[in-house]
Amino acid sequence: MSAPAPAITAAEETDAAGFAAEWQAWHQQRLQVLASPHGFLAVTDLHWLTHEPTRFDGIPGQWWVSDDWLYVELATDESLLLNGKAVSGVQKLGSIAERDGFDLGHGETIIEAAKRGGKYILRPRHPQNPLLQDFNGVPAYTPDLRWRITGSYRRFETPRPTLVGAAVEGIEHIYEAPGKVVFELDGETHSLTAFNGHAEGTLNFLFTDATSGKTTYAANRSLAVATPTEDGIVVLDFNRAVNLPCAFTDLATCPLPPAENRLTVAIEAGEQTPFERSAN
Fold first, then answer.
1. Counted domains in the chain
2. Do 75 and 101 share a domain, yes or no?
3. 33 in a domain, yes or no?
4. Is residue 100 part of a domain?
């Protein structure tokens, strides 16, 4: 006869309940961001710009790129809002850095002008986009403290430029990797190459695992973590692993994980394949 499972203490129950409540609050905040009227679910199209002036359905003006500057020529009956002011005629809008961009207004539509993989793009976003209107949340694993794992951050002597693929053909992304995190799971040692997060000092990980293409989105998931401590301690809370925009729509240019971030272990935590993809 096998030994009975150890009893869960009152303190452990309290910790688990508080952890679950924190995760639920975070998850609801995440859903609010996804459901925002001009968020990524509002994207209606993806247009690639060239040196040839071109018109696109639903967007005023002719658009082109010259010497790494974005231009638009608006007809006499056309205008756009730039920084809250109406502009018309020929406009030299700016030179956009990689992975950067800005927005222009056109009625209810926000037009995102950006650069991805060295190429200029336009992505109109409309609050009545069916993908956004039909949004009904994101399935996720039940939060579990088991997947809140402590790792060790190992900074590289110099940041390593890392070439990664993209969710669309024809472009690649280059990210600087400042270091990697090593962690233990089920008696085995694993590591993940880190990229810089949105806030200074924070880290972000692009990864796949043995659940990818089964219960989670096949191409990638992302995990943001806080700044490592002075002695290099990092908390990897895989319960907060999220889908990138390409999990919801083909109009995204999301980066793919580097080869070393394709874990062989099953990370049964975080967001699962979106309903929109599961229905396909």
1. 2
2. yes
3. no
4. yes
95 and 221 co-located in one domain: no
Final residue belonging to a domain, choices 75, 103, 133: 133
266 within a domain of the structure (yes/no) = yes
Contact criterion met (CB below 8 Å) for 132 and 35: yes
Domain contains 31: no
pLDDT tens-digit map of 25-78: 999 999 999 999 999 999 999 999 999 999 999 899 999 999 999 999 999 999
Please give the Cα distance from 15 to 10 (Å, whole number).
9
Length of the chain in residues, anyone?
280
Over residues 88-137, the pLDDT tens digits come to 999 999 999 999 999 999 999 999 999 999 999 999 999 999 999 999 99
Q: What are phi and psi of 23, to 5 degrees?
A: -65, -40
Host domain of residue 149: 136-278
> What is the C-alpha separation between 82 and 66, in angstroms, rounded?
20
Longest dimension (CA), the chain: 85
Indicate the pTM of the whole model. 0.90
Domain-terminating residue out of 133, 167, 196 = 133
